[in-house]
TrEMBL record:
Organism of this sequence: Aeoliella straminimaris
Protein name according to UniProt: DUF1553 domain-containing protein
Coiled coil: none
Domain DUF1553: 668-919
SUPFAM superfamilies given in the database record: Cytochrome c, Galactose-binding domain-like
Length: 944
């Protein structure tokens, strides 16, 4: 060996070693820097491409990739994931060779994704032990996951402060302008004042401004004139009517059951009135939610009409499967309307299987069903807000009335049993009658009805008065007396007509007995011991509401022992009920105390007029019972129940909520309401502000207002949507504040004139470069016609009018009316809304028929619309009334009549050409034809 080279060899060896160490260190550092993150990089690939076939329920080839242990254990063909050994990991092999995922319809991972998986395996296939995978974890090309945009927390974005030429009035404009500029576009100029006033009136109250109102705004030069206009309209009682109609569409409100009988729900209108009232009162939206889901728990009982506002098959199929199916359908309707209206999710898709598009497992659908499991369709008694005061006043007045009636009976002659005796007592009265006779000792008193004015006889209270210094009604059950009868109509614990009502001391139809025989029947009172009596008081309905079922021929008998009856009074000495000319005055003339009797009758009339309305009223807002267990139904089959599911919400939405299986019924709905109405729920605020936007601009920021899921639209202005959602919470959930914000923006005030350049870039106006022209809805068109003709009845609330001819068929027949009068000249929101039946004239204008949820209305143009607006009896009638108004308010001046017609129809005067043409038309065809022509113009039925 050359000694001279030895040091060099040593030197090189040391250098090599140092290089190797350095390289290894660099490689380790590099690997450390590129360490694969399982949750961020690997889990999304496995969920998107593998988990559909290799999950806990469907582990094809015996391989499940939901957790570390099953993935490493592998399946029938070998180990799925083998840490640090790519060649032995079957998942990597199958992906590389293209056999996974199978089929051509499933998206395959890219080469980069496969390489990322391989690198992850090489690095040891790190998989946190507690981490399990679900098809709902990540959004893929097939479905939305828990990372879907609408399920993420609302984060208030920073407002961009670009403001060219002072166009930005509030943050809405900043967000809109930012996206317009990014697309190379700019906004449109502001609309003129006449256009703005008409637009805002229709948007907020659904009616056009009167000529005076339009002129007042046009002439108002104050800087805040527009804001003042918006504030005034938001305080109008007609605001609630306009926006209630939108909400009733969203929640599928109807006033009939649907299905083949489609019978009307006489008291469903209370929910409609609640919505109008809540919106007018400015009820915060979170409170609005809670009231509709659990109003019985927070003092707003009629609000739960929301739950049962949908169709209900009252006939159904009577076998066990049919009954279960009907119940499942009712519950599915409640789930569907709750999830779409408040959350913008189509949850009922999970009824038979896990949701195909959104992260809602089937089990969570049945958890939601458990929330509603105690809700049943039907009416219930509702206490008005001033119930206790009404009750106190009612008792007071009824005591006074009873005393007056006793005194009246005391003035009447004794009942005569002599068939030849002169008629000297008044005819029977539904509000009260007395039969006085010589004192008699008795233990049994029987009242037998021999004839009525209509139907089965009804008595609201049978009073039997004792003789002595302290007379009392000994018929009362509280005295120990027992009632019996020949029969009872509609007997049952739920019937308001029960035998127990004959002597319970309560008056009125809701506390009455009705016989089960037409025109006849008897009722008997057995006293606990013999008592001397001298009069019997009875009535059909002391509250004066009902006058049918009145006993017109009767007999009163007494006995100490059964079978030994003695007649003490009949109707034979009364004036005949059939004698139409008979009056109380005539009866007075035959009495010995006519003056006193007249005074008592006047007092009786006064008391009856002061009686408050019924202390309680019926409303179709559901009934509640403690729910049975809720099973998960295999494939949605009601005959294949599986294990019980406890009540809860959707875990993908703000974590959901979970309740014990034995939670009381009312607490289930209240928990659901609070979860939905929470500021932490990312869907609730986004969905409602988008609805407001939708109705103000004709389309929402999200174009599918009731579907924020995978198959719904994507937001055109995501930052604006989140800013509005956060702002709603900031302003205490006030919908009126959100209206004010939107309407006062420059975005809303833009003109609707189209421009060619933006039209080529954004034909659908998603970026809001102008305000869209919109056709009025059916209700606004009809209401505007009535307002123009001067006959619109602006009364708010109460039972609606019927658009169909009355009939008493077992199955309701909806035959449209051909004649209309003041009863039907109310706003169309008060038209009784049966399902699957439409207003004969305005139903053609894309009016929902209440058979399904209608979050947005289509806008069609059909020949039937034109024909209805030109030739329907309603429009012809209103055109005639419109013409009469013009003649009345502008007499003998055709030009002034034409001008007024334009003002009432369009909010403006005609130009010279329009005036000339209109005068020629009036001369040739008449003023009524001119008015009908105005109703048929685009300017009348469209708003710019």
């Amino acid at each position: 060996m050359d000694e001279t080279r030895q040091p060099m060899q040593i030197c090189l060896g040391t250098a090599s070693l140092l290089l190797i160490v350095a390289f290894a260190s660099q490689r380790a550092a590099a690997e450390s820097e590129t360490r694969i993150d399982f949750s961020k990089q690997i889990a999304p690939i496995l969920v998107a491409h593998c988990l559909e076939c290799h999950n806990a329920d469907l582990a094809e080839g015996g391989l499940s990739l939901v957790e570390r242990s099953t993935a490493r254990a592998g399946g029938d063909s070998g180990q799925g994931i083998k840490p640090s050994d790519v060649d032995s990991s079957l998942v990597i092999q199958r992906l590389r060779e293209g056999s996974m995922p199978p089929g051509t319809h499933k998206p395959r991972p890219t080469e980069d994704e496969i390489q990322l998986l391989a690198t992850w395996v090489t690095q040891g296939a790190e998989w946190p032990q507690e981490r399990t995978l679900s098809l709902y974890d990540y959004t893929t090309v097939h479905r939305g996951g828990e990372d879907w945009w609408s399920l993420q927390p609302v984060k208030r974005p920073e407002v961009i402060h670009a403001n060219p030429q002072g166009w930005v009035r509030n943050p809405i404009d900043a967000f809109v302008l930012d996206q317009l500029q990014a697309a190379g576009l700019g906004p449109s100029p502001e609309a003129d004042r006449r256009t703005l006033v008409r637009r805002v009136y229709f948007d907020l109250i659904g009616l056009p401004p009167s000529p005076a109102e339009a002129e007042e705004f046009v002439a108002d030069n104050r800087d805040d004139a527009y804001e003042r206009l918006v504030d005034r309209l938001l305080q109008s009682p007609h605001y609630g009517e306009r926006w209630a109609r939108h909400w009733l569409d969203v929640v599928r409100f109807g006033e009939s059951n649907g299905y083949e009988t489609n019978t009307l729900r006489a008291n469903a209108w209370h929910y409609r009135d609640y919505v109008v009232r809540a919106l007018n009162d400015g009820t915060p939206y979170d409170r609005f939610i809670i009231e509709q889901l659990a109003g019985d728990q927070v003092g707003v009982e009629v609000a739960t009409g929301f739950l049962v506002g949908g169709p209900h098959d009252e006939v159904g199929i009577k076998n066990i499967e049919g009954q279960r199916q009907q119940r499942a359908n009712d519950l599915d309707d409640m789930i569907a309307v709750t999830s779409t209206a408040f959350l913008g999710l189509s949850a009922n898709c999970a009824r038979c299987h896990d949701h195909k598009f959104d992260p809602i497992p089937q089990r969570e659908y049945y958890a939601m069903q458990a929330v509603f499991a105690g809700v049943q369709h039907g009416e219930r008694d509702i206490k008005p807000d001033d119930y206790e005061e009404r009750l106190r006043r009612e008792r007071q007045l009824l005591e006074q009335l009873a005393e007056v009636n006793r005194r009246l009976v005391g003035l009447e002659p004794h009942a005569s049993l002599d068939s030849a005796a002169e008629v000297n007592r008044p005819t029977v009265d539904a509000r009260g009658n007395g039969d006085r006779f010589e004192p008699v000792k008795t233990r049994l008193i029987r009242f037998t009805v021999l004839a009525t004015n209509a139907g089965e006889p009804c008595i609201d209270e049978l009073e039997i008065w004792s003789v002595g210094p302290d007379p009392r009604n000994v018929a009362l059950a509280s005295f120990g007396s027992v009632a019996s009868a020949s029969g009872v109509y509609a007997n049952g614990t739920n019937s308001i007509h029960q035998l127990a009502h004959i002597n319970d001391g309560k008056y009125g139809n809701s506390h009455s007995w009705i016989s089960n025989e037409g025109g006849q029947g008897w009722v008997q009172i057995e006293l606990p011991e013999p008592v001397v009596i001298d009069r019997v008081l009875w009535a059909r309905d002391r509250k004066g509401v009902y006058a049918d079922r009145l006993a017109t021929s009767y007999r009163i008998e007494v006995a100490i022992e059964p079978g030994h009856w003695k007649t003490v009074a009949t109707d034979q000495d009364r004036l005949s009920y059939e004698s139409a000319g008979s009056t109380e005055v005539e009866a007075d003339a035959q009495s010995e105390a006519g003056t006193e009797r007249a005074s008592l009758l006047a007092e009786k009339e006064r008391i009856e007029s002061e009686l408050p309305p019924a202390s309680m009223f019926k409303a179709y807002c559901g009934t509640f019972t403690e729910p049975p267990p809720t099973p998960l139904l295999y494939r949605g089959d009601v005959m294949q129940p599986r294990d019980e599911v406890a009540p809860g919400g959707f875990s993908a939405v703000a974590g959901g909520f979970q309740l014990p299986a034995n939670m009381p019924e009312s607490q289930r709905r209240l928990a659901l309401a609070k979860w939905i109405a929470s500021a932490d729920n990312p869907l609730t605020t986004r969905v409602i502000v988008n609805r407001l936007w939708h109705y103000h601009f004709g389309q929402g920021i999200v174009t599918t207002p009731s579907n924020f899921g995978f198959q719904g639209g994507k937001p055109s202005h995501p930052k604006l949507l989140d800013w509005l959602a956060s702002e709603l919470v900031s302003c205490n959930w006030s919908l009126k504040e959100m209206h004010r914000l939107i309407l006062c923006s420059s975005t809303y005030r833009q003109a609707s004139t189209p421009r060619s350049e933006p039209q080529h870039v954004d034909a659908e106006n998603r970026l809001l470069w102008h305000n869209p022209v919109r056709r009025l809805e059916a209700e606004a068109i009809r209401d505007s016609i009535l307002q123009a003709s001067g006959v619109l009845d602006l009364r708010i609330g109460g039972q609606g009018y019927d658009a169909f001819v009355p009939n008493n068929n077992y199955v309701k027949v909806y035959e449209p009316k051909r004649q209309w009068g003041p009863t039907e000249w109310r706003r169309m929101i008060y038209q009784t809304k049966p399902r699957m039946e439409q207003d004969s004239t305005f139903g053609a204008f894309d009016c929902p028929d209440a058979s399904q949820i209608a979050p947005n209305r289509t806008v069609s143009t059909t020949a039937l619309q034109a024909l209805n607006l030109m030739n329907s009896p309603f429009v012809i009638q209103q055109a005639g009334l419109f013409a009469e108004r013009l003649e009345r308010e502008a007499p003998a001046d055709a030009a002034a009549q034409v001008d007024l017609g334009f003002q009432l129809a369009y909010g403006r005067s005609p130009d010279d050409a329009e005036l000339k043409e209109s005068l020629g038309f009036v001369t040739q065809h008449g003023l009524s034809a001119f008015c009908r022509a105005l109703f048929n113009t685009n300017e009348f039925v469209y708003v710019q």
